[in-house]
Amino acid sequence: QGLQTILDKLRVQHHYCLYCGCKFESAGALANECPGPNEDDH
C-alpha cells in the first residue's frame, strides 16, 4: 500500500488526519475543520 492509500483509509475509517495530528469525532467534523487531505493543504 502506498502512503496516500493509508492516509485515505485513516480519513475515511477513523476520521484521522496525519497533518492535523488528531482524530475528529465524525466525518463532518473532519470535513469542516481539516483544511484538506494533502500536506500542501496545511
UniProtKB/TrEMBL annotation:
<dbReference type="GO" id="GO:0000776">
    <property type="term" value="C:kinetochore"/>
</dbReference>
<dbReference type="InterPro" id="IPR025239">
    <property type="entry name" value="DUF4187"/>
</dbReference>
<dbReference type="InterPro" id="IPR039249">
    <property type="entry name" value="GPATCH11"/>
</dbReference>
<dbReference type="Pfam" id="PF13821">
    <property type="entry name" value="DUF4187"/>
</dbReference>
<protein>
    <recommendedName>
        <fullName>DUF4187 domain-containing protein</fullName>
    </recommendedName>
</protein>
<feature type="domain" description="DUF4187">
    <location>
        <begin position="3"/>
        <end position="42"/>
    </location>
</feature>
